[in-house]
Specification:
homooctamer, alpha/beta, Rossmann fold, 5-stranded parallel β-sheet, about 50% helix
Chain lengths: ~150, ~150, ~150, ~150, ~150, ~150, ~150, ~150
C-alpha cells in the first residue's frame, strides 16, 4: 500500500517538513500548495499580465494556484489540513470541504484553542491531531500497523 | 425553471430574510442551516446525551447539524455563502468547498475588506456580491432574464 | 425540506412504528424492508419456483428482497439501522455499509452492550442513538430546528 | 491483468496467509486491515490521546482504522470477506456492503452454518466459498483460465 | 414507494400488456421502447431525410430510438428484459448490459430453452422469470410485501 | 414519459418559438439561455458593479449566465444546439461538449453548409437536423411513437 | 499514449490473435475473457462445488467469469466486440451495453449480414469494422496518426 | 507531481511544439489530436471503407478521431485549447465544453480579438493566455512554484 498525502493550510511554520522528514522511511508521497507567499499571491499577473484592480490581480493568482491545489487534492488518499494562529485561513477550510465532498480521508491539525470554531470541519475528519508528529504516527500505523512507543 | 438555493454562513444578521423576502415573487425554494446559535451548539447532547468533554459535546452537535447541511447543499442548484465580520467562520468556507466539489453554482457574499483572504473561495464562485439585494437580482435575472433598474 | 428515511435492520420489535408515529407531524417519508419474516424468507421460491437446495431457496429470496432494499437505500436522505439483541444481523451491517458508501446520512440505533462490536459501523454514522424517540428528535431538529423539552 | 485484492473480516485464523501463500505465483497484490487486535483497538488513543469514555476510545480507533480500510477497499478489484465462528463481525458485513455499493467484485468466505444469516450478503457476491484454497483457485482461474486438478 | 419500470426486449407478443394490466393497481409507472416495428425501423429517415445506403438508414433510426431508450433505462428503478424465440435480439441484451452497468435492478424474462445462452445476462439479474405474471408478482411483493396465493 | 429539453445556441431567429409552439401538445418542458443579447452581455456589471476593463465586464456576465446555462443543461434529458450563419458561436459548441460529457441526448440543428466544420459535434449527437420542425417531430416520435405524414 | 483494449465476444475463430499479432508493435495491452469454452462453462462448479441443477451450474460459472469480464471492461479504454455466425452471443451484446454505459470507446466487428439486427449496438459504437485487420489499423491510427497504404 | 496535458484546437501553427519544447525539462506528458489535416479528415473511410455521401465520409472520420480525443481529454489533468484566426473551430470549443464538464483544469489560448466571442469558454477556464510561452510558465509554476524572470 502506497499513500498519497496532500498537505493543505498554514504556510508560516515548518509543519510540512516535520511530517515529510518524519515519514521519510514510509511509502508515502506528499504534495502541497506553493508555499512561497509572494509567488502564490502574484503568480497570475506575473505570468498572464498585470491588472490595475487588486481584486482581479488576486483572482488571476487564485485561479492559477487552483490548478495545483485541485490536482493535489484529487490525487490524494489523505488530505491533511493545518490551521495555525494567524490569518483567516478560509482557503484551508475550503480545501477541507472539497476533500470531504470528494471522499478523501481527512486529518485536521490544530491547537486546542481552535476546537470550537473548527467543530464542523473536525466532524468531517477521520483524525484530529495537535502535533505534526501525530500525523506521522497515523501514517506509520496505517501503512505498517505499528504504534508509537 | 425552479431554483433550489442553500443559504450558508453568517447567522448574526438578517441577510437570509433580505434574500428570501426580496425573492418572494420568484420560483425559488430556500434551505439554510439551523440559525439558532444555542440550539445548533447543543443539539447533539440535548438529543443523544450529555458529554463531560467539551470536544465531544461539540462533535455530537456538529454531526447532527451535518445531516441538515449536507441535505441542503446536495439538493441545491445554487449555494450562497455569506462571510460576516465576526468569528472564524471556517464552517462557511468548508461549505463553500463542499459545494464547489459537488459542482454547485456558488455565490459568495462578503464586504470588500475580506476580498484578499477569500480570493481562493471567490475564485470558485460564479458571482461575488457585497449585498443581499444583489443575490436577489441574480436570482431574478437567472429565472426571468430581467435586469435591475 | 422533505426528508426520505429508510429504516433498516431488526424486525422483531416495534421500533419502526415508534419512529413513524412519533414523526407523524413532520415532513418525512419512510421506507423499510418487508418485515414479515416468513414472506421475506420465501418470496423467491413463492414467485419464481421451488428449489431443492436450501442455499438457492434463500438466494432467490435475498435477490428479490434486494430490489426493495436497494431502491429504499438509494432514494433515502437518511438511513437508520437498528441492531437488536438477537440473530447475527449481518444484513443490517451490510445495509449500513452500502448507505455509507453511497454518502447517505447514517443513524445507528443500538443498546450500549453493542457499542464495542459496532464501533466501525458507528464511526461511519452522524448519530448513534439508543432509543427510537431519539431518532424522532433528530428528525424534528433537522427539519424544524426545535430541540426536545 | 493484475488484480488488487482486499482481504476483510475475521482476524483469528490464518486464512489470509493461506490465500497469499497459495497465490504467491500469481499477479495479485493483497491489502488487509491491521490484524493485530490490540493495536487495532487502541490506535486512536495511542496516537491522538487518551479518552476517559470507552465509547470515544473505541471511536477514535475506528476512525483511524477507517483510513486504511477505505483505501484498501477503494483500490481493490476484488474484496474477499471472511466470516468466522466467533464475535459479531458486523465490521466484516459493513465492509461487504461498502464494497458492493462501490461495484467491487465480492467473494464471501464462510462455513455452511452461516449460509442463512449471510444470505443477503452472499446475494451481492460473485462467489461464495468455504475454504481459502477456493479463493486461490478463483484468482488463478480469473488470471490464467486454469482450473484446479 | 413508487417504482419506475422499463420494459425492454421482444415486441411481437403481448407480454408488456400482461404486466401493465396485471400491475394496474400498484404504484408503478412503465416505460418501453416504441413497439411499432416499422416506425422503429424507419423513424430516422422519415424525420431526418432518406438515405441510399441501408446501413445509414438503419443507423439514423437506431440513434433516434436511443433517445427514448436511454431516457427510459436511466429513469428506471427496475429494467425488465424479455427474450423471445425469434430474431437475434441483440438490442435486448445490450439494454440489459446498460442497465446492469447503471446499477438498475434487472429482471430477465425468458423460456427455459434460453437459459444456457443467457447465463451471463441472468447472472447480472436480481430475478429470472418465465412468465409475465411472475414479474407482476415481484412488483406486488416489492411494493406491498404480499405474496401470491 | 416527460422530457426536459434545453435549447442552446443561436439567438437571432425564432427557431426556439417554432419548436416550443410545434411541441405545445407534448409532455415536454423547455429551458433556454437568456436570449436578450444586451441583457446577456451586461448582466454581470448591471448587478455586481461596473468594470473598467472590457474583459472583466464580459467575464462577470458570462459567469452569471453560467448559473442558468449549467442548470438548464444538467436538468435536461435532451440538449438541442442550433448553429446559425452569423458569429463565432463558440458558446454553442461549448454547450454541446458539456452536454455530451454529461451523457445528455444531443440534437444538433444546422444548415448543410456547416456540416464539415461541425463534424466532430455532429458525431456526438443522436440526431442532426436542418429544420426546427424536425426537432418537433423527433420529440413527438420519442414521446408517442408517431411519425410525420 | 498507451491504450488498454478489451476483446469481447466470439471465441471460435482466431480474430483475437489476428489483432494482437497485428498490433504487436504498438503501445497496446489486451485483455479478454477466458476463451476455453469448457473451462468457462464449468469454472463455477469446478472450484466451488457441483450443482445438481444445470441452471445453478451455469450460474456459478457465469458469476466467476464476471470477475474477469468486469475487470477487463472497466479497465479498458476501448472495448472491441466481435459477433460471429454461430450461437446467440447475448453475452457479447451484454458486454457492449456495459461498455457503452461506462463511456468506453466501442468498436463492433461483424459481417454485413448482421448489420440490421446489430443496428442498436452499432449505433453506440465509434467504429464498425468487418475485419480484424481494420481494428489493428484503427489502433495504429489512434496511437500514431498513420493510415494504411 | 506529474501533469498530463492535452493540447486541443488549432493545428496550423507550431504552438504545440513551442509548449512541448519549452516544457521539456518539466515532469509533464503531452497528448494531442492527430494534427495531419488530411489524415484526420479521411481516417474513417481509409480504414473502414469509402462512403458516397460526404456527410458520412466526415462522420466516420470524426468517430474514429473521437477515440483518441476522448482518451486524451479523460486522462488529462489540464486541457489547453488554442483558438486561431482561421476556420470555425467548433471542435475546439466542443473539447473545452467536454473538459469543463469532466472537471479538468482548463487553459484557453487565444488572441485578444477573440475575447468577446470566447467569453463563455474563458469563464470556464483557470487561465486565459495569449502566448504558448505563458502556458509553459503556468506548467512550470504549477510543478515547481517558480515564476518567470
Amino acid at each position: 500500500m502506497t499513500l498519497r498525502v496532500y498537505l493543505s493550510g498554514e504556510i508560516h511554520t515548518d509543519w510540512r517538513e516535520q511530517i515529510t522528514s518524519g515519514a521519510a522511511d514510509l511509502d508515502v508521497s506528499f504534495d502541497s500548495p506553493v508555499t512561497d507567499h509572494d509567488a502564490s499571491d502574484d503568480c497570475g499577473v506575473a505570468i498572464l499580465g498585470a491588472e490595475d484592480n487588486k481584486y482581479w490581480h488576486d483572482h488571476k493568482g487564485a485561479m492559477v494556484n487552483a490548478i495545483r491545489t485541485r490536482k493535489g487534492i484529487e490525487d490524494a488518499d489523505i488530505v491533511v489540513v493545518r490551521f495555525g494562529d494567524q490569518y483567516k485561513q478560509w482557503n484551508a477550510a475550503f480545501d477541507a470541504g472539497m476533500a470531504s465532498a470528494l471522499g478523501k480521508s481527512l486529518i485536521i491539525l490544530h491547537g486546542p484553542q481552535h476546537a470550537h470554531p473548527l467543530k464542523e470541519v473536525d466532524a468531517a475528519a477521520l483524525a484530529v491531531a495537535e502535533e505534526p508528529s501525530q500525523v506521522v504516527e497515523i501514517l506509520r500505523y496505517v501503512l505498517t500497523g505499528k504504534l508509537p512507543g
